[in-house]
Amino acid sequence: QSLTEKPMKGMLTGPVTILQWSFVRDDQPRATTCRQIALALRDEVCDLEKAGIHVIQIDEPALREGLPLHQSEWQRYLDWAVESFQLSAAGVADSTQIHTHMCYSEFNDIIGAIAALDADVITIETSRSDMQLLDAFQDFAYPNEIGPGVYDIHTPNIPEVEWMVALMEKALEKIPAERLWVNPDCGLKTRGWAEVEPALANMVEAAEQLRQRYA
Length: 215
What we know:
Layout: E1 9-13, H1 15-20, H2 30-50, E2 55-59, H3 74-88, E3 97-102, H4 111-117, E4 121-124, H5 134-140, E5 145-148, H6 161-172, H7 193-214
Parallel strand pairs: 1-2, 2-3, 3-4, 4-5
């Protein structure tokens, strides 16, 4: 942030995802370990805020994959998973935005837990689903802001402005304009600069056109 006047987003992997993607100690409950991870992450989140970062993303792509095999145990898991996420974000001021991101999932059966995370913004992969994944958020009346992906980062294709605008038009049928963000599906590590730069330029142009149309 010290190198630019433009707002920067800090990004961290969330406590549940770190737990799911690690070799976890087995001498204490997983819920306890997750809360310990969350406390460590909270220090990182607070350090980012102190450094002038006012948008902090805590990714939880593994939230759904952590569900127990027996559905009768789901609620107990979701309770401590949500608590851990909230704990990791609990140290910042109200003026600091907390974002989260989730990869391709079926959200219908955990949408209540996603809402309980209380992230200011959730970004999700939707470009390949033609925005159908937003149905769960519409049906639940999800109260916070949503960034449905319009750039499929798993392919070298560079999406045209018109294509991204058309996708967002479909999103607008489900979510009000004032609660929508425009963003790629996911991180860009699989793509090269020759693909990323024109794709992001097109995405910015698409966002500008949408603002002029709906602001």
